Automatic annotation (TrEMBL):
Glycosyltransferase 2-like domain location: 9-169
InterPro entries reported for this sequence: Glyco_trans_2-like, Glycosyltransferase_2, Nucleotide-diphossugar_trans
Keyword Transferase on entry: yes
UniProt KW Transferase keyword: yes
Protein name: Glycosyl transferase, family 2
Gene Ontology molecular function: any one: transferase activity
Amino acid sequence: MMKPWLTALPVYNEAQYVDEVLENVLQHANQILVVDDGSTDGTPERLDAWAKRLPESVAVVHHPQNRGYGAALQTVFAHTIQEGYEGVVTLDCDGQHQPCRIPEFIEAGQHADIVSGSRYLKVFEGDDAPPQERMFINRRITADINRRLGFSLTDAFCGFKAYRTEGLRALKITDDGYAMPLQLWVEAAAAGLQVTELPVPLIYLDLERSFGGSLDHAETRLNYYNQVLDDAIDLACREGRFQPSEGKNGQADSPCSEKSKRAAS
């Protein structure tokens, strides 16, 4: 018998938010996994205190060094599968996701393999204005994903998601960084997973958040995301994991066809 849904938070240097976020998450989730991705600001000690105080509800995994957002989620996915949970809800630990919406994601997860939060699907009262360059990149990449993979997404990068374990087993996630969602969408399309979006408010508490090194430059980040998307599609095509027939997401042709057309032109 599978365990009920897990709630998981990837964390890196969130000492100013982690206590308040966990307090709120505990009001809506019974089983919580926090993956500390090599934090150096006191976050690990705060998390260990939570796990010691509430061992039946809070589990913590520490990465000895910072490996990246994608690496933290890979740890979450592996734990979800290995421990036999029905699924997992992921949210960030920076205060930008509202824990009160966790039950909505779990409910939607009964009818889809992946439930993805969208900050652009609905306007909420009090929404923050997103940083223009982030919104521009999100829209560009989201449009490209929809065109190439047959989805109808409005927000390709939101970290507030629900994954059914059955669907997680079909994903081959290897990207350790912030571009991991791009590989995720390619893997979901290749596996024919059912995807739906759930509207969430636009909340930005830290407009200066770094993506790391050269990725803080918008054009460099966009080029990097495009390359990751190309590479993920190329790999799935070479492995023969895309089917040309229409699938669950309404794609009428394989993404591999576009590559073939470009090569022939």
